[in-house]
Amino acid sequence: MSRLASIPISAEPIGSTPEAWDNSLPILHEIRHGLKRLAETDESTLIDLNAIPFGPNDEARLLALLGKGEVKAEVDALGPTRVWESAVHGVWIIDHRNLEEQRLALHIEITKIPDILRTQSQDIIEALRAFEARIATGPGEPDPTS
Q1: Which CATH number goes with the domain that contains 29?
Q2: Per-residue confidence (pLDDT) for residue 14, from 0 to 100
Q3: Which parts of the chain sit beneath pLDDT 70?
Q4: How far apart are CA 120 and CA 126, in angstroms?
Q5: Which residues contact 66 (CB under 8 A, 6 or more apart)?
Q6: Of 3, 66, 98, 124, which is the most buried if we count CB atoms within 10 A?
Q7: Residue 56: its pLDDT value, please?
Q8: pLDDT score recorded for residue 18
Q9: Which residues make Cβ contacts (< 8 Å) with residue 43, sequence separation at least 6?
């Protein structure tokens, strides 16, 4: 034990600047691989950003680098979910929040259209039934406000 005590040990801080903790670079590479996979095989990729150990400003840096594209949507289901295409076509950001606006999940989905925006098969079946019933009862009164 005395030999171990004679070994000099010094601790240096790892990355005292935000750039040293930058975990956005591996995510950018995963996005590149996902885009390649989507282009070649039509296979989507989902990246769960909550599972990534971000340092200070990593998330903001990543989202700023991806930028914002032309398409955005909001889904209201047990809290708001905001979906927007980044400036890179096919790279979507999905931000799930609860009713108190606390983030539940943040995903990057590399796909032609995010799953959350696709109509589910069961919903289409129910819509068909409801629409047929609406047609059978005839048109309702026009809405005077529209």
Answers
A1: 3.30.1370.140
A2: 46
A3: 1-21, 140-146
A4: 10
A5: 31, 86, 87, 88, 91, 93, 108
A6: 66
A7: 77
A8: 45
A9: 37
Which residue shows structure tokens 């098969």?
121
Q: Looking at the domain assignment, is residue 14 inside a domain?
A: no
3-state secondary structure (DSSP) of residue 90: coil
Q: Is 3 a member of any domain?
A: no
Residue 88 lies in a domain: yes
In sequence order, what are the residues at sequence separation of 6 or more whose Cβ sits closer than 8 angstroms to the Cβ of residue 107?
Answer: 46, 47, 48, 49, 93, 94, 96
User: What is the number of domains present in the chain?
Assistant: 1
Domain residue limits at 119: 19-136
Task: Quote the tokens at residue 135.
Answer: 């047609």
Rounded distance between C-alpha atoms, residue 72 and residue 140, angstroms: 32
Percent of the chain with pLDDT over 90: 65
- The pTM of the whole model exceeds 0.90: no
Task: Please report, as a single letter, which amino acid is at residue 134.
Answer: R
What are the angstrom distances between the C-alpha of 65 and each of 39, 56, 57, 83? 21, 15, 12, 17
Separation between Cα atoms, residue 49 and residue 114, nearest integer Å: 16
pLDDT for the residue numbered 107: 97
> Which tokens in the block code for residue 63?
């989202």
